[in-house]
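input
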Amino acid sequence: MRLRFVALATCCLLFATVFNGCTEKVKEPSVAGSFYPADENTLSGMVDGFLSAAENKKAEGRLIALISPHAGYQFSGQVAAYSYRHLKEREIDTVILIGPSHHKAFNGASVYAKGIMKTPLGNIRINNKIAAALLNEKADVVFDAGAFEKEHSLEVQLPFLQRTLRNFTIVPILIGSPTKASFEFLTGKLTEILRKNEKAIIIASTDLSHFHDYDTAVIMDRKVVDAVERMSLDDVERYLISGEGEMCGGYPVLFTMMVARNLGSTNGVLYKYANSGDVITDRSSVVGYSAMGLYKSSLSQAEKDELLALARRTVEGYVTNGKAAEPDMKNPRLKANASTFVTINRLGQLRGCIGNPEPLMPLFISVIRNAVSACSKDFRFTPMTRAELRDMEIEISILSPFEPLSDVSSIEIGRHGLLIVKGQYSGLLLPQVPGHFGWDRTAFLENLCMKAGLPKDSWKDAKLYSFTAEIIK
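output
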């Protein structure tokens, strides 16, 4: 009887294995043998060779996203390795892959929602749970397996992942013609997902300029790379629309930059740039490639001192002769877009405070403009005079991204600033304000409402957002 039970259990187990195997769809590789070798040993040797030759460029801060090219390995494989070199020895368990659709036209985005993707190096599982959470037909985000059938932009990334990571799953996303709904929904959902899991990373797949002569390509590509380094979504989009720059994965990069910015990314770092003219002798018509990382990093003490000195020079110059500072900024970290507030205090009292809540301009320009406004355009005060310069103290607050606040009990006095939005009214208070006045959480919320011109209990049914700030003084 016992033997029959064991045999029956074994039979059931085999049946379950076969049944599950039949229902789990395997996406076979589409470009093995053309974009990269189809032989397992040849492919692993090639990828390992690229990785060993790639420099691990030092970059400060938390790596949030990567950008990698997707041409044939003979052209862009070595550049791609510079991105994937930065994944080695990291504990990554989830990879969000975003690339352009080259072969099928559709609106919005297609998420490969379940199953397995295969390469000559083996199988990679789809993160079914995350992928399913991203599907929303009303937001133009669907599972269209046909869009992936011949597509190479994501497939060529997989062997690099297999040679740099262990025990990971993927969420493959192809962008067609993005809609406003798909952009807002996907970037919002991905922000939520990655905010909860620091072992997740997002990777955008793109090449740069296509089929220009070598020198023209370098000029065009430098503009795009510079905009990504500065985390300027506006400039990236402007270059793509005007034709001053090119990226076949422009929209995937914009999706990635928005998610990275929502997660606090402050700047991009270029690991490697090259184009096909660096591989072949014909430089009359080339394609550009870049390997980049998007980071959340703090300023060094020297950079903080430079910004503070810049703000002081700006106020002194503007109050004295009506002219703002115009530095020739070289530091790429200070050229990255940021949202700042400049506060001027005099004899222990507020004398002016103006800022830009959204990161729409380079950090150093934001400081200059807000320093000018704080000393001359704060409607609560008359413009500063020369006599006041001697006693002034300047404080710069660099804001983190806003996060929706659902539970006011999570507000930490001294750490969190708040933004309230209700109808056409809005107001913002910096993290240091409640500590200065000795407010508790309730007083903080009530004064926030009054700052926005709202009744003091309006926070109970308004949209609230929290943020932190890097304060320099």
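quick obs: The chain is about 35% helix and 25% strand.
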